[in-house]
Write a structure and sequence with these properties.
This protein is α+β, with helices and mostly antiparallel strands and about 400 residues long. Helices cover about 30% and strands about 25% of the residues. A hairpin with a 2-residue loop joins strand 2 and strand 3.
Length: about 400
Amino acid sequence: MPVKKWVIILSLFLAASVVPAAAQPQQVSTIRFDFCGTAIVFDFDKANLEPVQPTPLTQASIQAFYNNVNNEHYESIIRALTAYKKQYQPDDWLFYQLVRKTAQYISPKADDYLRYTFYKWYLLNKTGYDAMLAVSGDRVLFYIYCEENIYNIPTRVYDGKQYVCLNYHDYGTIDFLKDRFTPVSVPGTAEGNTFSYKINRLPEFNPRDYQEKELRFSYYDNDYHFKVKLNPQIKTLFTNYPTVDYEAQLNIPLSKETYQSLIPLLKKNVKRMNTKNGVDYLMRFTRYAFLFETDSRAFGGEKRLSPEQTLLYDQSDCEDRVALFFYLVKEIYNLPMIVLSYPQHVTIAVQFDKPLGNPIIYNGNKYNVCEPTPQQEDLPIGQLQASLRRSSYEVVYHYAPPGINQPK
């Protein structure tokens, strides 16, 4: 049954009923764009666009921008964004993507980068978040209050709170020892909630936006073919998603259409297998249905993919495959697992009722390595690649299913 599409009306009305002859003509237009299957529509008068004061940026110029846009012309857009948030309850990162897209239609990034960034800052503050700016000459860094561990992007502590940078990628690299960025404090903008990068639920995209991707792998001389439904919008939503803790990465779910095109089929294929063989099947699917490539070559730097991104991209590394394998085992068998981080590799181990071979002991329980990344050897369950057998490792994530007794 087609997904019902809701329309969020964002209206910016002119306050004056009579326009003087010398005033600029109205430029009201109806703008419509799709956001994850929802049609976003608003009327906007470009005459209300607030200019950014000439650089260098100062506390006074940013305060002036905020004062000038904090008026009745923007009240309806704030109400509509808040209504969307209340109705759909998107996770913070996904809601920020809506804010970004809304700001893009108000003031395109390519036309005026500073104004585009200021609008994002303003909209986030007005929809319940604690966002702040820091300036250095004609550059501005845009931060959000976040208490989580976020890697590979700058953070700063201000008034005892950690803020994570949302637009560092726009500048590439910054020498913070050479270039000092001064925080800008605007009254009334530091009272919002903390921002979370955890993704607990993906939007219900329009089914027509999905494309089929064929995946193949062999399992003991049997060839398996899958036609998985995947949505290219996932790439856009996660383009600048930072490196997060393994717990947050591994627990990003699949979207509804992708789930329904893959999980029931996998469950059917392992239905007649015992648990060990079923997990072995999932391990080899994750290992051999995708090409391997390092993040540095594929993306130019560290990027941990979610399970659905791993399905979407043609190439992935060890951390990405651990995420996909973890999701599949959790969804189909819900077994205890630990993620093992070696100096140059990440893998995963599963706890079975009866451990095999030489298990890894963690908190008194026995886990068997299930290598989801292709190696020079065709490793069975319980066997680690030879180069790692004497290497030290760290358990970076432990999953214990609620209500399941763990044998020792």
